[in-house]
Amino acid sequence: MGQILQVVFDALSLGSLYALAALGIALIFGVMKLVNFAHGDVIAFSVFALLWPSVDAVAIIFAGNLPWFLLIPFVLAIGAGLSVLSEIVVFRRFRRANPATMMIASFALGFVIRYFLLMLFSSRPKSISLLPALSQPVEIFGARIPLLQLITILITMAVLIGLTAFLRRTRFGLEMRAAAENFTMARMLGVRANRVIMGAFALSGALAAAIALILGSQTGTANIMMGANVMLMAFIATVIGGMGSLAGAVLAGFLLGAIATVMQTILPPDARAFRDAFVYGAVILVLIFRPQGILSARGTKERV
Amino acid sequence: MGASVIRRTIATPVFLSLLLVAFAVTAWAVGSRPFNQTIIDIFLQVIFVVGLWIFVGNSGVISFGHIAFACLGGYVAAWTTIKPMMKGNAMPGLPDWLMGMEIPFWAAAGLGAFWAALWALIFGLVLMRLSGIAASIATFAMLAMVNSIYSNWESVTAATSSVVGIPIVRTVWPYLIAAVLAVFVAWAFAISRHGLALRAARDEPTAAAASGVNISRMRLIAFVISAAVMGMGGTLYAHSIGVVTPDTFYLGLTFTTLSMLVVGGMGSLSGAVIGVLILSSLIQVLRWLEAGVQVGASTFALPGGVQEIALGVVMILILMFRPAGIMGNSELNLPNRRSDKAGQPAPTRVL
């Protein structure tokens, strides 16, 4: 019983991470058809914002010394700020470009951000202790769950509920959904394009920063590549969730987390190193049967 | 009449090959080791970018995964050309027939091409069913999958540690021949009926499908051919430096090749080759600056990472202001004496 519960919690917390990342990617894809390859680097940047630039192996904590109630908003603001900045400086000029062009531009931007971090901090992983109080375990029905895992799941639930309420109940959310459905039509009806797109970027950046906080406290290291793996899983989640469908992205994120955790448990020890390869294989199997994704969004297929 | 047939068939690859031969002859005439190595690097990049172009240029689907095929090819070099004794230490899990194998590098390159093409066929059967953007992301997943397998399969790939002992080929000529071969293969595919059908599907998918073009099958053919070229390039890459690691063939190389293709222009083979030549020169200059240059009494050096940042910025600027790349959709060719534009390809919407 305890063991099964452990697996369930592992799956939920890993799935939460993937779901948050997938949501950040799907939000931007929804409003401007941009597959944001810079998302993973926004995650890494948000962690490094806590450190003072130095190429030494030992991290010099700078903003990381803030008390938690200031630290969390600070990191979220950094993520949102960088994301909005990338919109203003780069992506705004690609509004009329086709999705493939924007995708490559974001790939290039991601590289610029990553090597900017490399220039300031070197490529060596640095150990940091971010919110150390969270690594203590708590006992639930005989399973020992790290407090962080519990918080990750709860935060994700809160974010999902909050975002749903925001998208369904507020005017801004309505505009955002309208823009995701049919951008041109939404503009014709008086939705302000720039505001909606900047809102989507800010939300996406803040989600990236939330992932950064979770990853940073989970692993205790800051690494310029730390966002890459989560981003890849998030991309896959948006593809199998159906490009542009927010609910699909979240669902697929949790599904991926579950697949990965179950593989980790049932695979023989020799094969565990290949867990991610098996997950990608499973994804390819899903795509054979549903090439359009689990929940395919309306309006993504071009009409003739 | 004769000139027009040449224009439409072999003029472009011949021009591009002459350009490459000029580089090789310069390297031979200069005769310095580092310069020789630089030219070899350029030829390898030409192979990679031209290989990438066969798929991306003709189908309009961006692939982030082609470097995975170079990785497959690179490890073929490690499996088939290292002396059996050394192989046993680094990769004890190889089957016996592979363990005893020691073939020359050109045979390994052929085998690398075949091995990559085989896997491209298997992956492609699934990936080519997806639509444009989803396919791009799935190719990225394929890259990560291959990298994850090759970085963990200790007994067959020595995991993340470097596999050393691959015989190093130092003369430029084999690389020149391979690059010219890649250019001709790419051009032959582009002007074949499959290539034409694929470009039709890229520009007007609905009309092409209605005219009986099986889009996913055409994409699959291009995918396999381009993977073969990438596999050959990967094997030769391994022979140029004598070492392979999985991370040699990962995001860094993906980024460089893609940026060269974008800067040169995805719509044309000449663009692919010229993009390599221009960006390789830029990278070389930045490497010198990163290593440090004497200015008067003080040494001026750029911090590490500037090279990639500069590449990224150049790429973004090109995409902003000249999205079709330097060459756009035009090829290097004989001057067209007739002034009608009927023979010109229509402007495409790829980039």
Q: What would you say this structure looks like, in words?
A:
The complex is a heterodimer of chains A (304) and B (351). Helices cover 67% and strands 4% of the residues of chain A. By secondary structure, chain A is mainly alpha-helical. Chain A has a single domain (2-289), classed as Orthogonal Bundle (ABC transporter involved in vitamin B12 uptake, BtuC), CATH 1.10.3470. In chain A, strand 2 (137-140) and strand 3 (143-146) form a beta hairpin. The mean pLDDT of chain A is 85. With 351 residues, chain B is an all-alpha fold. Chain B has a domain at 13-244. Chain B is built from 16 helices and four strands. Chain B has helices spanning 2-8, 11-30, 33-59, 66-81, 84-90, 96-99, 105-127, 132-152, 154-157, 173-191, 193-203, 205-210, 215-241, 251-264, 269-291, 306-321; strands spanning 163-164, 243-244, 293-295, 298-300. In chain B, a hairpin with a 2-residue loop joins strand 3 and strand 4. Chain B is globular. Classes of the chains: A mainly alpha (304), B mainly alpha (351). At the A-B interface, helix 4, helix 9 and helix 11 of A face helix 7, helix 8, helix 14 and helix 16 of B.
